[in-house]
Design a protein that fits this description.
- The chain is rod-shaped.
- The model has no long low-confidence stretch (mean pLDDT 87).
- By secondary structure, the chain is an all-alpha fold.
- 92% of the residues lie in helices and 0% in strands.
- The relative contact order is 0.07.
Length: 51
């Protein structure tokens, strides 16, 4: 029975690590997505002559 608890704990830790990595990747990508949106907005503004 003790071995089953160790496996359960290991699975929980693995899920926590994967969730942390996915969250970090999304946070890192959000910066680039925000910059991309700003660049697209700037292009649209320039095309329509808005200042």
């Amino acid at each position: 029975m003790g071995r089953f608890k160790n496996v359960k704990a290991q699975n929980l830790i693995e899920y926590a690590i994967v969730l942390g990595l996915v969250s970090a990747a999304i946070a890192a990508m959000s910066t680039y997505v925000f910059r991309s949106i700003q660049a697209a907005q700037k292009t649209v503004d320039q095309e329509f002559g808005a200042q």
